[in-house]
Design a protein that fits this description.
The protein is mainly α and 171 residues long. It contains eight helices and two strands, in the order ββαααααααα. The chain is globular and about 50 Å long.
């Protein structure tokens, strides 16, 4: 199992969400968490929701076969629809600019699309989740995120091999 670790000043900080909060607290001139305590709590809730509900369901749809895969895909769609409700009418979870939840959850758009193609399941329905679909595209167009993304073909190739290993070669 991989763990995300940031080393700053010779001190390691582990886990993605903890790292994001550390960055927010360390570089106060560029906040990613809202200033308002209620809004900050909401941001933490949605980031945790993605970590604990959306990501595991999508991963399950990637690693399962047959009925189990379809059940996991249904759960993923339900969770993604709930995530969409948290976005509301905003451009980003952070409001008009990218923030904590956008950074913590934006990768789901790439991962879900890869899973859809490789595992042959539907996760992000553009008809029933138009706001979420648009949000994923918007996050991936943020210049710094766009610059840091690996090439799509490389991601697809790597994850096809990973899927084959996990499922014994079939969807």
């Amino acid at each position: 199992m991989e763990h995300k670790i940031l080393v700053h000043g010779g001190k390691p900080i582990a886990e993605s969400l903890v790292i994001l909060e550390y960055l927010d607290e360390t570089w106060k001139q560029n906040p990613i968490l809202p200033e308002d305590p209620y809004e900050r709590a909401q941001a933490r809730f949605w980031a945790k929701f993605v970590d604990e509900k959306c990501a595991p369901a999508i991963m399950s749809a990637f690693t399962k076969k047959g009925e189990e895969k379809e059940k996991a895909a249904k759960e993923a769609r339900e969770n993604l629809k709930i995530l969409e409700s948290g976005l509301g009418e905003k451009q980003f979870f952070g409001g008009e600019s990218i923030g904590f939840v956008d950074i913590a959850a934006g990768w789901i758009g790439i991962w879900a699309r890869l899973v859809e193609e490789i595992a042959e399941v539907n996760l992000i329905d553009t008809e029933t989740m138009p706001v979420l679909d648009t949000w994923f595209k918007r996050v991936l167009e943020v210049p710094i995120i766009k610059q840091c993304l690996p090439p799509q073909d490389k991601l697809l190739e790597h994850n096809k091999g990973f899927h084959k290993m996990l499922t014994g070669g079939s969807s």
